Amino acid sequence: MDIATHALIGTATAAGLFQTQPALAVGLVLGNVAPDLDALSRVAGKHAFLRFHQTYTHSAGAIATVLAVAVGLLMAGIPVWGELAIGLVVGMAMHVGLDLANSYGVKCLWPFSQKRFALDWIFFIDAFIVGLCFVTLVAQCLCQTDKNLLRWSSIIFVTALMLYVGLRSVIAGRAKRLVNSASNQRGPISIIPTTWSPFRFLVCRQQNGLADTFTLDARSGLETEGEVIAILDENVPETVTQCREWQVMRSLSAFFFCLEIDSNAEGETYTFRDLRIRNFRTKFGKLTCQLDNRGVIQRKTWDV
Ligand SMILES: [Zn+2]
Predict the structure, then answer these.
(1) What pLDDT score does 302 carry?
(2) How far does residue 120's CA lie from ligand 1's centre (Å)?
(3) DSSP per residue, 118-133
(4) How far is the CA of 98 from the centre of ligand 1 (A)?
(5) What is the DSSP string of 158-188?
(6) pLDDT at position 282, please?
(7) What spacing in Å lies between the alpha carbon of 203 and ligand 1's midpoint?
(8) CA–CA dist 104, 101 (Å, integer)
(9) In the prediction, which pLDDT does 185 show?
(10) SS3 assignment, position 272
(11) What stretches pass through the bilayer (predicted)?
(12) Ligand 1 mean position to 50 CA, how many Å?
């Protein structure tokens, strides 16, 4: 999820559940936000951002380390800091769990595995979750003097959030079954959830050198906004596939393809896009390589 949604979730949870344990409450809110501080790696450049974002700070290794510190603080008789660290552990686990339900990919098993995992249940900005957070926080502001009501608001919030995530897993499973049963060929398929409707998915299916993209309604199975795009990867020279940007993008997405080749007197320009990511017409990952007539890369643009 985006960092603002994580912060709202942490606040709506902590406000009612830990009214008398401020250290635990602060730790829980910080834990819900802290893993995304890895986005600061963007300062060191695009490569650093792609290498660090949703990796080490979103992992079992990081959570276990903070848990060890928490146990150490509690055993050393420093309960306030110990409680803060326990809150951090719970908040981080909530953060990683929700990011895992998105599509970007999380190295949640690091250091045991370098693989990025993504369940593709919920898009990283989700209208229902943001709405649920706002309604809960407004209700909590209105009933802040009634401790019992405040506690129930957080219990209902956490229960509703867990039920929603569970429901989204069922809907995503149905979307996968619908797409698989409609495909007579077994090529790679990507099914990405969207922001506004839990039933709308962006599908990309690769077969016979073509990318078949469409929008799927997981209730009716209706496929709309279909477009068949030619994959031009076979015409891409090695100079391009050996460049660092191409290799990073291909390692992140099996649906990162060359979709456009422009030739003119000065040389050729190759344009690549990740066809999984089409929500909001984002250009994330778009790479353009301009080669001269000798086949040497003269210019590269990369949207990250
Ligand atoms: Zn995150």
Answers:
(1) 93
(2) 15
(3) ---SS-SS-HHHHHHH
(4) 8
(5) HHHHHHHHHHHHHHHHHHHHHHHHH-SS---
(6) 75
(7) 24
(8) 9
(9) 63
(10) strand
(11) 56-78, 84-105, 117-137, 149-167
(12) 13
Residue 289 alpha carbon to ligand 1 centre in Å = 30
- The predicted pLDDT at position 225 comes to 85
pLDDT at residue number 54: 93
Structure tokens at 301: 């643009």
Low-confidence ranges of the chain (pLDDT < 70): 184-186, 278-281
At 136 the pLDDT is: 97
Q: Which of 183, 171, 179, 302 is nearest to 246 (CA)?
A: 302
> Other C-beta atoms within 10 Å of 171: how many?
19
User: What are the sequence ranges of the domains in the chain?
Assistant: 3-171, 231-302
CA distance 276 to 203: 7
What integer pLDDT is reported at residue 181 of this predicted model?
85
Q: At 194, is the secondary structure helix, strand, or coil?
A: coil
Q: Helical H runs in the chain? A: 3-17, 22-33, 46-52, 60-75, 79-100, 127-142, 147-182, 238-241, 244-252
Q: How far is the CA of 169 from the centre of ligand 1 (A)?
A: 19
Distance 35 CA to ligand 1 centre (A): 6
For residue 215, the CA-to-ligand 1 centroid distance in Å is 26
What whole-number distance in Å separates Cα of residue 99 and Cα of residue 2? 9
Ligand 1: centre distance to CA 73 (Å):
26
Interatomic CA distance for residues 105 and 120, integer angstroms: 9
List, in order, residues 6 or more apart from 137 with CB less than 8 Å away.
Answer: 8, 11, 12, 15
Residue pair 81/19 in contact (Cβ under 8 Å)? The answer is: no
* Ligand 1 center–CA 58 separation, angstroms: 7
| pLDDT per position as a tens digit, 182-209 | 776 667 889 999 999 999 999 998 888 8
Q: How far is the CA of 112 from the centre of ligand 1 (A)?
A: 19
How far does the centroid of ligand 1 lie from the alpha carbon of residue 2, in Å?
Answer: 7
